[in-house]
Amino acid sequence: MKRLRPACLLLVSMPFLFACSKSTLSEEDYRAQRAALIEAHSAQDPTFAALQSEMESEESYSSEYWRWRIDQYLYGQYTEFQPIYDAFVRGKSFTQIYDLPAEDLAATPEPGAELTDLPEGFFTDNLPGNVHTGKTVLADGKVYITYQGHLTDPYVASYDLENDTWDGPYKAGHSTLSKDGRKVDSHGRPAIEQDSDGYFHIVYGGHGGEREDGLNPLSIDTPHAGGRMIHVVSEKPYDISSFVEKDDITPFASYTATCKMGNGDIYFFTRAGTHKSPWVYYKMKSGSQTFEPPVLITWPVPQADDPIHVDTFYITPKKVSDTEIVVTYLWHECNFKEIHDRTHYSRINTYYMKLDTSDDTFYNVEGKKLPLPLTKATADELTLAYNSSETGETCFGTRPLVLEDGRPAAAYEAMGDDYREWRMVVYENGKWTHSLPIPGTKRNSVTDTSGRKIKSLLKHETIKEGGSSATAAVIYRNAAGETVFATAQKSADSTPSEEAWTVDREYLSLSKASMQMHAVRNEAGEAEALVLNVRKGSAQRLYLWHDGALRPQN
Fold this sequence. Notes:
Strand content: 35-45%
Largest sheet: 6 strands, antiparallel
Number of helices: 7
Number of strands: 31
Shape: globular
């Protein structure tokens, strides 16, 4: 597959290039060819001058560090450099190429015996890192759950909904994310899909790759975060007890999002490296066990007036039909100095497009075919749904929405000085309208088992409906400050503007704890089970709720 770089569509002819894929190159020849390439491209690309200025000043990082960053920019942006560099570094380790100290990735001590005891009913060992509920697949009457477990390795378990039995958890692979004293990292949390032949596929573990993986051919950004992305497949269909590793995806990838389409094709969306990297998708055709080469969706571009700053994106895909995937995304203004404002992380705007998987073509909301890869300029022109830079708002996250009336829509997490809430942007009558409430977000009034109205309702999710009755799962804080997971029944005195609910059973109640839940729904949208995360201090475990009870792994 030919990859086009938006900044280098007009390439300079280099008479000194030669076929060196299997040869080696002396340092003198390498430096001469590298310098000639930089000089040739600098005439129309000011990024080299900006990076060179940082290298000479050494105010932010050492000159050797910036040499590495310049090499990566040249390697990813101008592919004619790749065979030259590869011939020079063949057989050399990272430290033989760059005189840089060992990585300092802010190690996090592993929890020890001081772990807080959590209530019985969980099915995992203690989980590291941020709170998460894992990823799930519902197939053949079983819930398959994969999650980031001990030392960020991927684990998988299944629960039989009819027989109330567990299989696993099993360790599905080895992650490099938190090994050797590194901090716990959640960018490569495992995602799971089952193919049409019954084999399970898990992708996991990536946040930029390892230094020893070399330079990233799909990026202008160095692997400064660590962790390889890996794809494993079960050795046998319908069996999660053992997996084998595939060599078909880039180790530099970050984030895991998958969609299985109606014809059995599986799409894996990921960022092809660290922050200043393109987003790509991999496709696995039904009947295959390997992904095809990646397709570039976006491309990062240094800003013309200040090339140290780079325009890039964060995307969120969602399958909306058997043949369509909606992708919403936001603009992220990054920089080569790795300086990030942690209050908003420079996340701006909301964008919308669709992937028609019947012909693997992206379209905007008006049905216009989109040129790939998208840059900030083409994204603004063709896919912009909400220009939050004009309102001064941060769009901290986006996600596709499916409205009952069929109007294209996206949710975005609006954030300002004193608020942070999810809102909606909708396309109607040829234009986008932002700052709308998300449908279905009715006010819910919940009363606890003592008849007191709950003031701090943290999560409410309807899990069963039938006529005028309904059951919901709720997470709230009670009068004693405890976090509670419970079920509630819909009351007869509910109104169209506010639904009234009464807690009928409390399952977990814990002080100084946090809880999250994820509903495992069938194709009809009905919740078959709930995955619950409970965290207190450094103790964190997953629970499965099904048919009125927590189901511990025995």
